[in-house]
Amino acid sequence: MSQTVSLSFYRFASPMARAWAFAMMGLAKRPIRRTPDIGFWKLCGAGKGEGFTPRLYPDVFAILATWPDAETARARVAETPIFLRYASMATEAWTVFLTPTSARGQWSGAEPFEAQGAADGALAALTRATIKPSILTRFWGRVPNISAMIGKNSDVAFKMGIGELPLFQQVTFSIWPSKAAMDAFARTGPHAEAIRAVRDDGWFKEELYARFVVQSDMGTWGGTSPLKQLEVAA
Fold this sequence. Notes:
Layout: E1 4-11, H1 15-27, H2 29-33, E2 41-47, E3 56-67, H3 70-79, H4 81-89, E4 92-105, E5 123-131, H5 136-152, E6 158-165, E7 169-176, H6 179-186, H7 189-201, E8 204-219, H8 228-233
């Protein structure tokens, strides 16, 4: 068996549904923890922007989880009561299933992803960081340039900034048609400058960098599957 990671996004349109989703950031922890076969998991809110962002986006919430294999992952997301409840309250739901190919660092003191080695095809990238309070001003002064770049990049099939704690605990997630396209973005411009600053100045108390092969998806986002853009690129 090889580990599969699910990342589910839910869009909530009405004020009542948004209030429900916000309350579930606390109330959903017990039923998710009790979900059969689930490993590492996180509940996240979303931000307005293409990556790290201090601006909250109250319409969108996400659930990340690890599972022992792809079949189990799809079954649990499709059939478990807590996931079904989120889907029933949301106006739109989309889950992407991923196989970890590399992972470096920790998330809440854990190493959640079991890397399976490199592979060809469409890839996803996830960066998670706990930002040091002392550098918040410098960090948020630099990030908008990175978000603008990724937002203009036509190679990106999907991108979203999510997080556990506004300002301090942030996650970026993006999907790319190939390793070459992903690396070209990472190694140039504001993103490359930010990486150097992270290393030189120690911006993060904790950080995790992971890459994944995109397996499949379930549901829609914006009325379609974001993975269709990958088929066009291919």
